[in-house]
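Title: Prediction job returns without error message
Component: structure pipeline
Severity: low
Priority: P3
Assignee: unassigned

Description:
Job completed but the reporter wants confirmation the result is attached to the right record. Sequence as submitted:
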Amino acid sequence: MKTLKFWGILSGISAAATIFGAWAKLTHQSFADTMLNIAMPATAVCQGVYWYFKFTALGKKKES
């Protein structure tokens, strides 16, 4: 379960970086393109890994 929490937190941080990059793009900041080129793939990878672990955890039966 710690792995799922780690990737969830990392996904949230990368999503926040993507939102910040979008704001920078809207306000014509010089670093906006670099920020988006780094943050958007990071968000996609983190969310993909998170959902992979989430769906594999659904397949496991809970031991009581």
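Comment from assignee: result matches the submitted record. The chain has a mean pLDDT of 90.
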